[in-house]
Automatic annotation (TrEMBL):
Keyword field: Cell membrane, Glycosyltransferase, Lipopolysaccharide biosynthesis, Membrane, Transferase, Transmembrane, Transmembrane helix
Stretches assigned to coiled coil: none
Stated name of the protein: Glycosyltransferase family 2 protein
One of the record's GO cellular component terms: plasma membrane
Keyword set includes Transcription regulation: no
Source species of the chain: Marinobacter nanhaiticus D15-8W
Biological process terms in GO annotation: lipopolysaccharide biosynthetic process
Record domain Glycosyltransferase 2-like: where: 8-170
Amino acid sequence: MDSCPSVSVVIPAKDEQGSIGPLIAETHRILREHTNFEIVVVDDGSNDLTSGAALVAAREAGCAIQVVRHAQSIGQSGAIQTGIRAARGELIVTMDGDGQNDPADIPTLLSQAANLQGKDFCIAGFRHKRKDTAWKRFQSRLANRIRSALLKDGVPDTGCGLKLFPKSTFLKLPWFNHGHRFIPALVKGIGGDIEIVQVNHRDRTRGNSKYNVWNRAWAGLIDLAGVMWLLHRTRVAQIVEPRDMGPG
């Protein structure tokens, strides 16, 4: 492998054989001029050739890549956790594998991160003009308003897959299934800074959406209650110099 990258782009993917290759090629083309990076694709138990398509695309582009494949699907949060633990970069960028997040927004996130070094932080994307159905946008807006009102995280679009944070910050967070939807709130809960960056959102041109409104709604309510409990119970220690009792 090449020298240790400063940035790891973590892409969870399930049954994205048609999308993952073009996304890797595009990400490489954009980031190679900006930073030393790697791509970490986590194939979450796909039934197609997602892993193979990722490897072929990276080889053709000359891109540093890790492909980790789950024997069976454990969900997006589990895939993100696997990818971040495997990542070698100090900074983590997460991005959905369906190609709707735009890699061209990553340099903006990196520029923002330069002002936050040495801190716990999360830079969260905000999809201003979403390329989704009206029903899906309505559901998302309602869920974001309820979540934001209860958690007070100040994030208008926690479902946006495009985020950037230090790996060290992520490893401090409690983690659970569906936890990827609450990363900004969890980061804020440990005293971290939250920044919002408006990002592009594109039409899905390949593959099929895994979005299930009703399953997500019920799971979201349960998860929201759990996160509220976690944040209420979280205590952040302030480290100070020990007192010296002097000679004697």
